[in-house]
Amino acid sequence: METTRQRIAELLREGPATASGLGETLSLPTPVVYEHVEHVSRSVAGDAELLVAPPECTDCGFDGFDDPINDPSRCPECKSERIEEPAFVIR
Question: From CA 86, how far away is CA 34, in angstroms rounded?
Answer without folding.
Answer: 10
